Amino acid sequence: MADFSDLITRRTFFQGPAGDTLSLIAEGEPPWTALARLQDFIIDVFTPNLPDRIPILTPLPNPIVLLPDGSVSWDAALVTDASSKGRPVALIGDTLIPDASILCAGAIFADRRIRIGKGVVIEPGAFVRGPTVIGDRTDVRHGAYIRGNCLIGQACVVGHATEVKGSIFLDAAKAGHFAYVGDSILGENVNLGAGTKLANLRFGTGNVIITVGGKRVDTGRRKLGAILGDLVQTGCNSVANPGAILGHSSLVPPNTSVRPGFHPPRSVIR
Q: Which of 133, 143, 215, 261 is the most buried (most CB within 10 A)?
């Protein structure tokens, strides 16, 4: 049986190149240790850019467009067509600005500790609390609730009626419908089926304990959701129990409950 340190490495989960976000997930350490550093990392590395005129804890009365150069347009037109697949795109005069970010009327921001990338769409009814980073071309859909201490990468989806708290989404991770993501890490191109719940609080007292290589390991965390490596997919209405650790390219069929502990890359959870 491989040693714990051989089983739980960054490469077991995350195959992409190490960028700003992956630097938070240190090689040679269990990936959940990144969650303890998450808030400080967001505050230290990213500069908030929410415009001062945006009201706090009040729904936006009108849409606001953040232009790629960092300026703000309060009166740009919004258009959709087949090429944008229904996503709104900013129109200034006769010029489409695909890299502009659109904060729709009805979106709510709890504070100003929020960084919004280029080409982001935040739909009506979304609620965002800082400190939070929302990467380029990410969609935050109607009714989404981002509760703070969240690092959302590029081309991600935080979907309708989805709640995210204290979590990391690497690029192209998607929680599209009715999901709960608490104290978790989603690798690149993870896709959560509708109704997936990544539970983060065990029954009873004490820290989340997982089994790795036949050994019981104290994660040191009272709250720990799931660590899902790159390309993991979950089916509709699946549940990951606190401390479910899935290597890259694993599959979770619909209506499955994933037990705590380490599941190697390319597992199919039954």
A: 133
